[in-house]
DNA sequence: CTGGAGCGAGAAACCGGTTTCTCACTGTTT
DNA sequence: AAACAGTGAGAAACCGGTTTCTCGCTCCAG
């Protein structure tokens, strides 16, 4: 034939016709209902293969009342922090016969709300990772009654399921570590303004005087570039140790320090947070706080699964972190 | 009320009833058809807001015959190589009123095929990024007749739309650069076995003798860990320069070299590939090849859009790369 | 031999939208 | 004043599945 005709979709009716069965029977075979005679089932299967039939996701979704999709919204896909979470959630979802629809809000709180609304139309359940949207928006979303779980954000007085990381303790551990090394004055390089993770770090640091630490905060960000840019100011602060918002920032600081001839940890101690892969490979390797991201993802995925099956009794969980002491921190010289 | 009854979904019929209109009219208002009297339209809009109505994605997808979703399959979400691609494609898709369904095959060719089949049921179009699946599988997928675009893989004799990166020229540029610096013997740390990107690098390197270079290859991988592990073998190869599969591998090598007291570039030159952010911040910064990933994503997104609207005449494109000379390469001492 | 239980499989209702078809009503033309 | 084109809006068909309902048939007990 000259022009292959615009291949019309193969439907369940086509399969039924070819197999000499009804659509109901084809549906039964497809869904593993065992009340179909072996011979008929075989004919149906043959027809399916023969025609290359694949059920329409939309039609199935409509008929079944659920799409088999769970949505995951992250502020930044480029942040490895979320990769392990996405991978774990995907694994859990896959085991439950669902797939994961990942979206990226680009750190934009407005887009975040919009995407959340959109995802709610597509997905059976929703996982909001580290949402930056204002409390009111979050409240509105939670009020929609859809199965939804939030990670790394707690909103007092709002009934939403959440799984968080114990950033507070992580920062405390860092403070204790630095205090033990004899540091007295430290500088904190702040993360994104709207991030709960940043709020928690600040909250913990506000109690650092208990360790005999004097903490000053500088605005910074969450990327290597921003760390690099903030390094000089950190140096000028007169502190003997830098607590970076995360490992990326720390690596940026480290790079700039190297250029400036500042020796780590002899001249200045430096800590990160999250324990990304690269943290082990810098010179010196970073003292940081390990966040069990895959565990977080797994817990979140399972909790969301329970929420979707109607279990309202999910208790908020806070996963523990672990201090990793490496070469970037030392006694003051 | 004591128990809020399991909130049934608000449907278009509910809106119609409340507004005193027909479902057809509600649909018209929703889709901006302007043949509705202003007063009626206003009542409908009020009812929509009042009831908090959101159209079901499944029903819309079924009725419209398309889901408004495009699928993107990547081998590894944790690889920043794909972030910019995903972001660009998302942007293009969003501008066209679609959303992006991202999936991760975990570098598993079998899962890749399975996920591709699955995505085809959900999405209007499909972008396969750097697929590792065997030629036969790829042929089968292409044969399904769905709008589909492949990046970073060319399969001779197979009719599939593809956008590739000119790895070949990139490697040539590296070879020329190293040759000019006086290197004669270089070692290549190979990437993943099934990756076309690796094949292309090998193909380019097989012509490196034209530059007077003697190239030996060692199996390695694509991660920092694997680079770290391969560093010693690279050292023992007797080469004066290491061409790493990508920047991650190079950073791993660099870290191990630092531990071993091998000076870069004095004792050994080192190159990466891709230009990830971190490449600028290592000590010394990496000589690498910049791949315009966002551009690749943009081109891919637009091409896929054209394919989806029935344009069969997409010519394969190869985006150019650019050599970035930094401190990790130098003349042999 | 007959009434009823059990079971396989088709007909049809249904999921929630979009879109075509049809019609009542308006205003214009001769 | 009658015929007609134009327009707004409802009824109904349709998208492609799942699931309930129903029915005919077989098998077994009474």
From TrEMBL, chains A, B:
What is this protein's record name? LacI family transcriptional regulator
Which Gene3D superfamilies does the protein's record reference? 3.40.50.2300, lambda repressor-like DNA-binding domains
Q: Which Pfam families match?
A: LacI (PF00356), Peripla_BP_3 (PF13377)
Q: Which GO terms describe its molecular function?
A: DNA-binding transcription factor activity; transcription cis-regulatory region binding
Q: Which InterPro entries match?
A: HTH_LacI, LacI/GalR-like_sensor, Lambda_DNA-bd_dom_sf, Peripla_BP_I
Q: Which CDD domains match?
A: HTH_LacI, PBP1_LacI_sugar_binding-like
TM spans (from-to): none
Which residues belong to the signal peptide in this entry? none
**Which PANTHER family does this chain map to?**
LACI-RELATED TRANSCRIPTIONAL REPRESSOR (PTHR30146), TRANSCRIPTIONAL REGULATORY PROTEIN (PTHR30146:SF138)
Q: Which domain of life is it from?
A: Bacteria
Locate the HTH lacI-type domain: which residues? 10-64
Q: Which UniProt keywords apply?
A: DNA-binding, Transcription, Transcription regulation
């Amino acid at each position: 034939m000259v022009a292959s005709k615009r291949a019309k979709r193969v439907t369940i009716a086509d399969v039924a016709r070819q197999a000499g069965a009804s659509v109901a029977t084809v549906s039964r075979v497809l869904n593993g209902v065992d009340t179909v005679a072996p011979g008929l089932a075989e004919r149906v299967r043959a027809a399916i293969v023969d025609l290359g039939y694949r059920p329409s996701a939309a039609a199935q979704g409509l008929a079944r009342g659920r799409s088999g999709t769970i949505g995951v919204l992250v502020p930044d896909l480029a942040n490895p922090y979320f990769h392990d979470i996405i991978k774990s959630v995907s694994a859990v979802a896959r085991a439950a016969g669902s797939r994961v629809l990942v979206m990226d809000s680009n750190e934009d709180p407005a887009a975040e709300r919009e995407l959340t609304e959109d995802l709610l139309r597509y997905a059976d359940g929703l996982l909001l990772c580290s949402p930056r949207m204002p409390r009111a928006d979050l409240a509105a979303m939670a009020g929609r009654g859809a199965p939804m779980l939030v990670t790394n954000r707690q909103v007092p007085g709002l009934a939403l399921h959440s799984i968080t990381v114990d950033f507070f303790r992580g920062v405390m551990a860092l403070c204790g570590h630095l205090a033990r090394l004899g540091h007295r004055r430290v500088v904190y390089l702040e993360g994104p303004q709207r991030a709960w993770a940043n709020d928690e770090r600040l909250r913990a640091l506000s109690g650092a005087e208990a360790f005999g630490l004097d903490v000053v905060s500088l605005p910074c960000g969450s990327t290597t570039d921003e760390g690099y840019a903030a390094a000089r100011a950190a140096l000028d602060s007169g502190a003997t140790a830098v607590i970076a918002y995360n490992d990326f920032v720390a690596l940026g600081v480290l790079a700039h320090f190297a250029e400036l001839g500042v020796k780590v940890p002899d001249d200045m101690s430096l800590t990160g947070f999250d324990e990304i892969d690269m943290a082990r490979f810098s010179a010196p390797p970073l003292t940081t706080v390990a966040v069990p991201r895959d565990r977080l993802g797994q817990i979140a995925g399972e909790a969301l699964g329970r929420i979707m099956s109607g279990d309202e009794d999910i208790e908020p969980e806070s996963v523990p972190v672990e201090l990793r002491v490496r070469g970037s921190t030392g006694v003051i010289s």
